[in-house]
Amino acid sequence: MQVHVPGPWSPLFGRLTLDQIPYNIPILQYTFAGAMLAAIVVVGAVLYFKKVGYFWREWLTTVDHKKIGVMYIVIGLVMLFRGFADGLLIRTQQVLANGPNAPGYMGAQHGFLPPFHFDQVYSAHGTIMILFAATPILTGFQNIVVPLQLGARDMAFPYMNALSLWLTAGAAGLVMLSLFVGDFSAAGWVGLIPLTELPYSPSTGVDYWMWAIQISSVGTTLNAINMIVTIVEMRAPGMTWFRMPIFSWTTLSTNIIGLTAFPVLGVALALLGADRYLGTHFFTAGMGGNLMLYTNLFWLWGHPEVYFLILPVFGILSEVVPTFCEKPLFGYVTMVAASFAIAGVSWVVWLHHFFTMGAGPDINGFFSVATMLVGIPTGVKVFNWAFTMYRARITYTVPMLWAMFGLFLLLAGGLTGMMLAIPAVNYTVHDSVFVIAHFHCMVLLVVAAAFAGVSYWFPKVFGFRLDESWGKAFFWTFSIATLIVFTAMFALGFEGETRRLDWTFNTAWKPMLVVEEIGMILYVISLACFALMLVFSIVNRKKNAAGPDAWGTSRTLEWLTPSPVPFYNFAVTPQVNTRDELAWRRKHGLDKAQPEHFEAIHMPSNTGMPFVIGMLAAVWGFAMIWRIWWLAAISLTALIVCVIIRSFYKNEGYHLQPEEIAAMERDLALGSVVSEQPDRSHHHYSHVEAH
Amino acid sequence: MAHQAAPDANTRLFAPGFAGHSQISARTLGFWLYMLSDALLFTALFAAYAVLDTPMNAAGGPIASQIVNPVEGFWQTIAILGSVTAYSLATVALKTGNRAGVMLGIVAAMVLAVVFLGFGFNDLATLTAQGNGMDRSGYLSAYFVLILTHAIHMLFGLIWMLVMLVQIPRDGFNEMVVARLLNLRMFWQFQATVWVCVYIYVYMIGA
Amino acid sequence: MAGSHSDPLAHPEVRMGGAMRYIAGFISTVALMGAALIVTLRHDMGYETYVEVVGGLAALALLSQAVLFYGLDISRAQIWKSVSLILTVPLFIITVGLTVWMFQSLDQRTMVMPNSAAAATQPTLLQ
After folding, report:
1. In this complex, which of B17, B36, B138 lies closest to A289 when CB atoms are compared?
2. Residue range B24-204 in CATH 1.20.120.80
3. pLDDT tens digits for C7-19?
4. In a designed cystine with A338, which of A80, A352, A377, A574 is the match (CB 3.0 to 4.6 A)?
5. Complex confidence, ipTM
6. C105: nearest CB among A232, A347, A359
7. pLDDT per position as a tens digit, A287-300
8. Is the separation of the CB atoms in A352 and A371 below 8 Å?
9. Residue B92, min C-alpha distance to chain A (Å)
């Protein structure tokens, strides 16, 4: 029942031919050269310093939740950079291609991007930012922080945790590959239907988009299971539900959304896939398909997904604000209740993404009111943070600055969101850049919280703080750039600019487009500040070395462990006596207390299987995209066989002996070389035999 | 507030010898959560089926009442419920560590599952042969994909059962094998639960 | 992880099974489906009453599976499964219910039904 595809197809290579490699597009030539250069530098450095074995043992095969979290965040930051580059192209194209007399360069009639290429750029920008930048970064924080906050040694399923990571990495690899082999979807990150159907998008772009999302969302679902079970089953003794830190609470609520929403996305894309591969008629324009069914299923996931991103952000703010206000969080219980209220209401608002479908006043009214209801728990949270700051002794560190800027963006994005919740307003500004400016306030809140989290937890993971002055330079350039770009964009929305324009026909928009471009240049400067911040932080790492409690005012259990955290987390499981355990211990002079004796710790063994399965999933995705059926069959079979083989493993991990722990704890207490030896765990790991 | 209490002589800061959680409980809870996720997948398919179940979406092809047979569906219902009951009885034998009993129950469950799948594939093959395959209309697409998704779940269950038939004699009832047997019971039962929904909604309300 | 050294067969989720309970689950579900089949074959109810009746029978069948086969209750071993199911059931109803409501209204407003005679003899949830 294979459908007819346009263009050549051969049994051996499927749809893959040499002309699918876009070697003649100048922008991609430079990108390719840059990517190759970066790859040569990284691979060359690894080979030159003979670190191949180290990478394999300590990173690619690790099941340690902290290292997995770091890898998630690195993937997320790389993809954030890629997404930003796409955003820069979009803004530059729109300012160059303004008005009927705008000149064209590099084969474009106006500006420098032909329409088809421009469409791919904004589709990739959205897909990458939501699913391959924001999601991995936030998942990474959850991985690193939650087990530590709960007083646990690892996640409930360390092996599955690594599997989730490598599925996400494989999918991100497919998105990157689409730059150099074939093309990417040109139908928006939401997959505008029926444009994504085979007759209207005959190339493999939509397939790249579809399979990459499918593979990464399997990883996200598995991670959600892992997080929920970790929180339910693995809290330290005394860590009752209402002693749990807010970040762990929001992780729980967000992963309930992740667990239940991602299968709906899976169905929406699988049915689209059935249309493209099996010739079914779910969403086709004729033969009994229903276009709006796709839109419905997509946003049925899409709106919960928005809160899937925002709830961990609220968690990060709730950790950062009390730390630098030196006060307990105001309204802990209402914060928990608000998190779950948001998660619940997120399931009944999805139609507000397509009010203009024409479902009628009853239905638009229902979803409008439901959308406005979200404002209540969100308002509770904003007031809680505000009251925490009220009359507090605030330390304006970099994480705190990011958190305060995040609150501002939440206010701007939230209030414009309330406007959009009114169907009459929504009909007027639907698909205008006003909507874009609104949701960019929200996703930049995610970015602000991500950088708050990076600077806040960096010393916990690496043992030294990030450079404060360059961090502040990065903060101010980034936040001013944000204000410039999106204030101008709100104005353009009111002037009637619609979204996704490769040619901005109205010359009256020119001033605001120029203002936006100035903001983009400032963003580029802020990126340079970020890079310099990393460089100077590493250079000055001795000066900025951090003890267990890096900020001196933090409140939760992760700051009880040494920085960087040893691979077994806690030498002895802590007994929790109260909410904000560390703040309580510090107040009563107990925060330096050490356990009297150690007991053997059971640790899981490293394994290369998750990496292998993740890569097989990526190969399978590639084979499906190019319709190379033999490769798809082989890689899928190999994947299933790997899962079965893994179930026959008898290795149940190993035990760290008390004397080994005592020796490592002595080393850590001396604090001499901790920050320079991230591979110290390996030293001890290698001579411990599996029992 | 309670969390302001000052430490006293009975305050403990560490919990040496903390037993931690049960591996089996963590695995069954994790698997249960996966099943809830899978249930949402079927829910989305049901929503799609509901939207596409109109004469207009049949696009001139057959509608539900012309292709479903509730009496045949009843035999399928008995087969799949018999299969899950056989597997459940196998887990009763697990209580006494009776290997032969567990394996016999699994084999019986597999045989009945194959009977169930035989009915289903026969239906779909007949429809396709009549020119009413999944590419005929929006309605038939929804019908085929709903039935096939359920059947693919059953096929994975059968593969899992084969693996267990190897692992039980090889490893005995160790912690991992027991956790897998318990998870497989939930998974298998879940297929019957989905089938009850499919049977009522597609085979009866559609008839 | 000291739990890993105890006898796996002593785990509460192994102990909870019972032959009589499973057989009762089989009989009750088959009986409820049989009743629904009889109602369907008789074809003597109005469409809405009929949907309510078989829907009710299906709900009973699902409930009997939850109690008899899955063994859901509020014991320490099962409480989180019960809680997570209760939290998820509204999502099943929202997903299907709101979608049907939405498309029912949309179809009435935007779709001209070409075959209204066939529609009258073959009611579906969307009409």
Report:
1. B138
2. yes
3. 889 898 888 888 9
4. A377
5. 0.95
6. A359
7. 999 999 999 999 99
8. yes
9. 23
